[in-house]
Amino acid sequence: MENNENFKKGKRLIKSAQQAKTALNMLLQDSEKFNIEKGISELLKKLENPKLELLLDRYPELLQEYGLGQLLSGELEIPDNEIIDVKTAGLFSCLQLLIHFCYELKENPNPSDYSYDSLRYILRSISSDKFVHDLLIIIVSVVGLDYYEKFQHKIQDLDLSLESARGLENDPELQEHTELMAWFALVRLFLESVYTYFNVPDNNPNKTVL
Hints:
Elements: H1 17-27, H2 30-47, H3 50-65, H4 68-72, H5 83-107, H6 113-125, H7 128-143, H8 145-155, H9 162-169, H10 178-198
Helix pairs in contact: 1-10, 2-10, 3-5, 5-6, 7-10
């Protein structure tokens, strides 16, 4: 699956710090923030893997023992856990923390060193492209490759009108996982925005708050 044409890096949605700031201000509104956080819980349910919940609970403890890069590498072996589960739990944990820290930074114009340093630590531990790609692999494991290919084919023909959006939502071939795909699109936009916005020299204080 890693080498499939459908998983090659696509064009970035966010190309400037100003675009990133605008997107983050929108995505961190309470309703949108809730939708992204709820989507993480819904995806966990769809994966039907109770060990992921246990690993998420253990992540603060694991971070005391391992580096975040190790936990996200897909190579770290932890007794009684599948390697892929360790990585998946890490991705979800990092996404939850990025949402939390970005929301905190948005609400507080004088962020604590801990919040800002922790956010930067996550961003330095995994690239934006890899984060999005690895989440996509998880999504496809739920919806199936056939569904994903059909979805990709159909959205290429959309003209972004309201009628087109409704048609996609009511398409009998796509209905089952439309909400999950919409959630992934929001998460991709969020991650690209975070990485773009905070990819600035540490000595530039004007970029540390939203």
